[in-house]
Each structure stands twice: as C-alpha cells, then as structure tokens.
Amino acid sequence: MTTRLSVTTVKVLDQDEALDFYVNKLGLEKGQDIRNGPFRWLTVRFPGEPNVEIFLEKPGPPVHDEATAEQLRELITKGAMGSLVFETDDARGLYETLKARGVTDFTQEPTDHFYGTDMGIRDPFGNAIRILQPARNPQKVTA
Amino acid sequence: MSRDAEDLNRRLLRARDAMDRAYAEPLDVRAVAAVAHISEAHFSRTFRAVFGETPHRYLQRRRVERSMFLLRETNRSVTDICLDVGFTSLGTFSRTFRQIVGETPSGYRAGHEPMAAPNCFQLAATRPWAAARGTPQSSRFGEATAAAAP
User: pTM of the predicted model, to two decimals?
Assistant: First the structure.
C-alpha cells in the first residue's frame, strides 16, 4: 500500500526566481538544495510541514533533451502544466500581503464560496496556484 | 522555442487571465492587448496562434460559462444574468449562448441543478468548448479581420 504524498513537482523556468517567489512571496521555506552537475534538486515546503515537499524542477538535461525542454517551457508559460492548491487561515489578509510584496498576477481576488474563501494567482512562470481558506463550518451540500 | 517566445506566451497568458477576471466589464481589444504589451493589430492573431482561439471567442466562452453558473445557482432573470456577465444585449447573449451551449439559457436552466463542486473545478469543467472550433464571429473585439489574414 502507498500511504501518503511526500513530494510533488512544479516545473519552472528559473530555480532561483522560483525559490524567491515561493519563499519570499508565499511564505514557504527552502527544503533540500542538492546539486549534481546541471541537475539541482531544489525543494520548498511549508514551515511545520517537513514531510511534504515541492520540487522546483527546471526542464533540461540530464532529464530532458533540449527539444523536450522547449516543449515543457512552452506549456509552462501557457499555464498548461497543472496547478497547486494551498491553504491559508486568512485569504483576504494574504491577498493584501501579496500585493504589498509586489505580486500582480492574480487570477481571482478572494471570493466566498460554501466551502470557504479562495483566490487564484500565478507563479512568475505561469503555473496556477489556488489558495483556499476553508470554511469554519462548511455548509452541508446535498445536491 | 526561444526565451522571447516564452515571454510572449507569458504575456498572452496574463491577458487571458485579465479576461477571466474582468469578464463582466466592457472589455475592448485595446485594453486586453495592452496587458500583453502587444499591438492591437497583432494581438488577436497572436493569441489565437498560442491558445487556439481568438480572444473574443475566449471571452465569450468565459461569459457564457459564468452565465451557466448563475442560471444553475441563482434565481436571477435571464436578462439580469446577461448583463451580469458582460453582455450588453439580450439578443447577442441568447444567440451566443445557443451557439456555444446548444440550447437556450432558459432551457439550460430548466435542465440543470446547482453543482456541489469547488468553484475552481466548475470553472474548468463547465467551460463550454464546442464552438471554440468554429469559425470566429465578427465582433467589437475586431479579430474577425485578423483571423482572416494569412
């Protein structure tokens, strides 16, 4: 049996720029940073959540040939490479904090739903990130 | 693909996000093209080359998707919903809705109940797609002429 998620991957164009965004803008912390030639195993994680890491992967050798890396970069910048969902305890406060930190790529301002308040942003490369403040007492839906 | 093309994609995605965000407002091609830092003359053709449909059609699908949400989830009148999602004429709304969804707004409402799924899922899963393959329509976004160019 598999038991839990420990690492997921976000493909980025530039690992240093990604690290700055995920750490200094969104508030994650740097996890592992191990280099082996052109390959750099760079992860971020939430403080207090050491068991779930996000690998900030830059397409290219030795994992991808250059043509494949080009295709991946094209898809990343079209916003077609999937998305992350984070949680927050204060969506509207976070929205103001992100704006103050110079984040401009909001796909959705904080919006209330029956399951909580969510908002949407993109990372500097085009990856979609949704951030949810779960409702304290989720409304039971029977539809 | 060069860094220039990646940068172009990223700017076009930003313009597409702007349409997703401001669909209810009266958008014109100049304003959306400005988000991408692309000239009005080239914007529609470039957007279509990257995303497979004209920005006008993308915006229509966004507005129709939001109208489908409001038809399912609220009791607002079709006319109010038409205006809520950025259409200025009920005739254009009804025609566009029928063309994209395949039934009238009131017919759609009668056949669909509220959907208990997170909004982000609904946004993606219920975005109508069929007419995206069709011939671009003439519009105030003006890409009909751009799309006709080689």
Answer: 0.83
